[in-house]
UniProtKB/TrEMBL annotation:
<feature type="domain" description="FIST">
    <location>
        <begin position="25"/>
        <end position="218"/>
    </location>
</feature>
<dbReference type="InterPro" id="IPR013702">
    <property type="entry name" value="FIST_domain_N"/>
</dbReference>
<protein>
    <submittedName>
        <fullName>Uncharacterized conserved protein, contains FIST_N domain</fullName>
    </submittedName>
</protein>
<dbReference type="InterPro" id="IPR019494">
    <property type="entry name" value="FIST_C"/>
</dbReference>
<dbReference type="Pfam" id="PF10442">
    <property type="entry name" value="FIST_C"/>
</dbReference>
<feature type="domain" description="FIST C-domain">
    <location>
        <begin position="219"/>
        <end position="357"/>
    </location>
</feature>
<dbReference type="Pfam" id="PF08495">
    <property type="entry name" value="FIST"/>
</dbReference>
């Protein structure tokens, strides 16, 4: 595959990392700051650079390109496949009356299944129930098709996220990119690096991704008690203390980030489902733990690969970025050291990550993880 990359800063044109190569019909991934992607000219600008292309946009909580983490920019990665092809479908949560499970089912059903290797999802991140979306996709997905992706971000504002396919970015969009080809090798993985602490509690009342009660007490009140003064900074401060959710006794725990709170109803809205009866603990992390988690995620993605990756799409969580602060680039640098210096890297910091656990086929929604999807032809 042939890959070119570019960066756009405010009020400036795209600047390519090397001389721009003419690509015939590339997949163009454009990840950027929400304010910049709200420009009415952004689609036309990219289309002018790549007239015959598939252009996918998504807003971020930080942009990843090579081994750098940027803020307030737009990063562009254009990929021309030599032996493979892509099919892209889109849908909007408003068309399904916020039934994200049905949306996932419908979206997956649109893809021809022959030679489909992988589905990569760029989803709106403000109001979607990511786990319900994945469950819908998984219901009609063939066993041999892998799935990964992430939820768009909006820095730490949590106001609105945007995505689109071949049009200006807008709210509520779910974009699915299907990768086809016998010679494609695609692997994905995730890992966190967060540690549970404090008492384990039982979810006694919830509905989908809305959490009402823990141990029969209002969950939001209990959570605010743990946060102390940081409760005044909710929902942003919740990114530093996500929840570990164990749905079944022998299952892998899932990390859930609080996307928003409802003080009037005394509830917490999480990025994915939190079923009643699940066991919950608070989590915390350190810079070193997060870096170690990123290294392990990269090692898992490389495990068993026959070919070195040519492209790596990295989706990491905004919560990790907040903990890392000035050292955020360290996790990207360590990932690059594992996957190789010749691999093109792109991606973004998100409100949620999609990938299977190591050794498993079924995709899950994660928070606070580093997720990699590696491609080669």
């Amino acid at each position: 595959m042939t890959i070119v990359q570019a960066i756009k800063k405010p009020n400036e044109p795209f600047v390519f990392n090397e001389k721009r190569i003419l690509l015939k019909e590339p997949l163009v991934l454009v990840f950027g700051n929400r304010y910049m992607l709200e420009s009415e000219h952004i689609y036309a600008e990219v289309k002018d650079l790549f007239p015959n292309s598939h252009i996918v946009f998504g807003t971020t909580s930080g942009e990843i390109i090579d081994d750098s983490v940027l803020e307030g920019t737009v990063v562009l990665t254009a990929i021309e496949f030599k032996k493979s092809s892509v099919v892209i479908k889109r849908s909007n949560i408003n068309d399904f009356k916020n039934n994200d499970y049905k949306l996932g089912e419908s979206l997956m059903a649109e893809f021809p299944k022959e030679n489909l290797k992988h589905l990569f999802i760029i989803s709106e991140g403000s109001s979607v129930n990511g786990s319900a979306l994945i469950n819908g996709l998984e219901k009609v997905k063939n066993t041999g098709i892998s799935l990964s992706g992430g939820l768009c971000g909006d820095d730490g504002r949590f106001e609105r996220t945007l995505a689109s396919y071949n049009e200006n970015p807008k709210e509520g969009e779910i974009i699915a990119i299907g990768f086809y080809g016998e010679t494609l090798e695609i692997t994905s993985s995730n890992y966190g690096g967060w540690t549970p602490f404090g008492p384990e509690r039982i979810i006694t009342k919830s509905e989908g991704n809305v959490l009402f009660e823990l141990d029969g007490k209002p969950a939001l009140d209990l959570y605010k008690t743990y946060l102390g003064e940081k409760a005044n900074e909710l929902p942003k401060s919740a990114l530093l203390y996500p929840l570990s959710v164990r749905i079944e006794e022998d299952s892998e725990p899932l990390v859930r980030t609080i996307l928003n709170i409802d003080n009037d109803k005394n509830t917490m809205i999480l990025a994915g489902d939190v079923p009643e009866g699940s066991k919950v603990q608070l989590m915390m992390s350190s810079v070193d733990d997060i870096v170690s988690g990123a290294i392990h995620a990269a090692e898992l993605a490389m495990k068993g690969r026959e070919n070195n990756p040519e492209l790596a799409l990295l989706i990491s969580c905004i919560g990790r970025k907040l903990v890392m602060d000035q050292r955020t680039e360290e996790e990207i640098e360590e990932v690059k050291s594992v996957i190789g210096n010749d691999t093109f890297i792109s991606g973004f910091y998100s409100y949620g990550e999609m990938a299977p656990f190591s050794g498993q086929q079924e995709c899950k929604l994660h928070n606070q993880t580093m997720t990699l999807t590696l491609f080669s032809e």
